[in-house]
Design goal:
This protein has 192 residues and is mainly alpha-helical. It is 80% helix and 0% strand. It has one domain (7-191). The chain contains six helices and no strands. It starts with 6 loop residues before the first helix and ends with a helix.
């Protein structure tokens, strides 16, 4: 598919699609497991959660392989700096959300920051490879920031919402991430 860019770009592309699939599986799990006033069978919730985890692990594996194997034709930002920024961001958000706003820390905070770091490293790789222009890369960085801000807002207000509003609030970050990954895959496919 990406013959001009080698197999690494194919692997990265499949990883991006798999991350969109992971968001879809996570949406299904959330919809089943947290539906107010009705308890889903534990086996169904378990299957959906395992499917989400498997898709997520496959996505991170493929995206990492693609990132590390892609040859750059121009200089991007160091992936190490992006990852260090993510660690600092996570610690700051953890402290602020827990100590300042007294919000119980859950894995969603880690997933939000982890997705942002992976997405920014991916955009950086696509820029360095020559597939994305500087303009497209900036657009995807802004999109990533918008998804993170929206997801953090949903994260912060979740426990203050009534049942149905909380249920809907839980869907929003997953929908945003899924759409962002599908848009990225679409632009990658178009630019190949």
């Amino acid at each position: 598919m990406f013959s001009d860019y080698g197999s690494a770009m194919n692997t990265l592309f499949h990883g991006v699609l798999m991350l969109a699939t992971c968001a879809g599986c996570y949406l299904l799990w959330w919809g089943v497991a947290f539906y107010p006033e009705r308890h889903a069978p534990l086996w169904l919730s378990g299957i959906l959660l395992v499917a989400t985890a498997v898709c997520g692990i496959m996505a991170v594996n493929w995206m990492s392989q693609g990132i590390f194997q892609t040859e750059g034709i121009r200089k991007g930002v160091s992936g190490g700096w992006i990852m260090a920024g993510g660690v600092i961001c996570y610690v700051v958000l953890l402290v602020i959300s827990n100590l300042v706003f007294h919000r119980m820390v859950t894995t969603e905070l880690f997933l939000i920051v982890g997705w942002a770091v992976l997405n920014l490293v991916t955009v950086n790789t696509l820029y360095a490879s020559g597939l994305f222009s500087a303009g497209i890369s900036v657009v995807f960085c802004v999109l990533t920031l918008a998804v993170v801000v929206g997801s953090l807002y949903c994260y912060m207000i979740y426990y203050n919402l009534e049942k149905w509003k909380g249920y809907i609030d839980g869907f929003l970050p997953l929908v945003m991430v899924g759409i962002a990954m599908l848009v990225m895959a679409g632009v990658m496919f178009y630019k190949k």
